[in-house]
């Protein structure tokens, strides 16, 4: 008794010491399972009605001579197992024994018979021990005959005959026992389309012959196309007819309404989306019309299994790109990945091979490269056009593991991601779209690259003050993100408020005058004059300003506070004046005269601060001009290039102050590199000094003390004058050429 008491005490102590470890999980943050349903309450496909109908028929199907086989046919992932479970739910009652047989768990076709009868025997054992034992004996006898039939001729025919007779007797005995038991046996066989060809035939032979017992119903689920293909590889004669001999009825799963997929997709991915993407999701799933040129098509998700695979992939991809991608593009890409992984990998590795820019502007969208070829049709040679990616897929189907019949659907998936522009529809490219070359790589790398500017970070700095925003612009530019920054700013069409509107305008001017780190000449990043004009649309002005003069003062301040060397801002002004569309946009506030005055102002301010002539000096001088068009008649115009007179005075004053450097930069080259050189003095001299005589008078007042290489210049001028002021050959010294900017190759 002490020992017994000690034993139980130890058990209690051990249980107390043993703490059960429970893994805490949040189911909504995990993956989505592809589990079949087993309860009518979970029946999204609305197939419980047909399950009830089939179950009622089965309950009233009693055959004392043979079994009844029902085939449930549909393609992969369409819900065959779920229907089997619903049938079991309605059949699971007394006087009915349900047996599950999974033939795909066997190693090969040689073990199918043994596994089947083992399962059947175990299931019947609680109800009839003798019947269970007879089934095992029947199985062993069946296998021995099967084994003998493939042995050599050494086996005696009489021995086989005796065994077959015994087998028939045993089959009849089992049939009689089943009849007397009063049970109906339901044998459920799922996933028959997972088997190899010989295994498929072995199971079908069991159903048709070896296990065709009385009061027995087989419920078998399979993909009919696969079964027919498997049978044809073994029996090359009427594979369809062969199946008709096995199954007395074949039931095709009814189609389901596609809104089921749409609603389930919403339900599963909404919890992880940003608020802005939730709004986009509703539009993406509702805006599913034939007029769409590209875009996500939920109808390409064929069943809930596809849906779960898509969602499980999406919930991995989206968090890394949240707020940095266009939801529609990512969902389309996930469809391609889910359905045709080899094609997705092809685009990932070789997208530069198959995509091209629609225009030279790097901010435009990417489209598929086209290939033109000659084909013969109706005995005539015609030109056909296809995409390079379709041409490649067609030529490499086998390597990519796809069928030619799938190419059309593949191209539909690709075109949803990269739609071709049409005569009627040209999709607007979002800055975060995969079609924007700057944003494309983030989709294939599943996250931002070092060369990517975070949209979330950009949006955060839009909410801060102008000083913080401009300081951050410097940081972004130092990281080489100026192209992405220009792209993001150019795509802004909506503004949070007046402060945000003015911050973007100020940021544009600050960025435009910032030195481009990729420039070898310290050039500025510059401006997009069309984008600026679009941001000055009247609807923006009316929204934020009661008085246009307030915005006018802001713009005047931006031009007044421009930074030297004024090249970028002068280029902007030049674009504004030359482009009639832009001047229309700017003319709400600033006149042509204002911009012309600014040209002169920038040139003068720069000229007065330099101690040496440089290329910026000449650029600013060239900007002191404008083009005017004068009407000749109703259809013709005359172009007139006008240079502002004040610019000549600035050149003259600067020449008098910096004669040593100015003289050398009055000489121009009339030839090309590596050719015979002819030199002349620029006609600018006549514009500045009036004529050659006045220029000579200035030249005579100069001395070697304040002008280096003066004698070399005078010698050239004498020869140039003797030639009637026409280009001449002359050998300048290297020292002279070093500071002669207009003579450099």
Integer-rounded radius of gyration: 43 Å
Q: What's the total number of strands? A: 13
The neighbouring-strand order within the major sheet is: 2-3-4-1-5
Low-confidence segments: 150-158, 359-363
What is the percent of helical residues? 40-55%
- Biggest beta sheet attributes: 5 strands, parallel
Q: Please state the second-level CATH architecture of the largest domain.
A: 3-Layer(aba) Sandwich
Cα(first) to Cα(last) distance is 113 Å
Name the CATH homologous superfamily of the largest domain: P-loop containing nucleotide triphosphate hydrolases
Q: Structural class, judged by helices and strands?
A: alpha/beta
User: Globular, elongated, flat, extended or rod-shaped: what is the shape?
Assistant: elongated
* Overall CATH class of the largest domain: Alpha Beta
Number of domains: 4
What's the CATH topology name of the largest domain? Answer: Rossmann fold
**Beta-strand share of residues:** 5-15%
Global mean pLDDT: 84
Number of DSSP helical runs? 35
Please give a quick description of this structure.
This protein is α/β, with parallel strands linked by helices and 745 residues long. Helix content is 54%, strand content 10%. It folds into four domains: 40-252, P-loop containing nucleotide triphosphate hydrolases (Rossmann fold, 3-Layer(aba) Sandwich); 259-444, no CATH class; 451-646, no CATH class; 658-743, no CATH class.
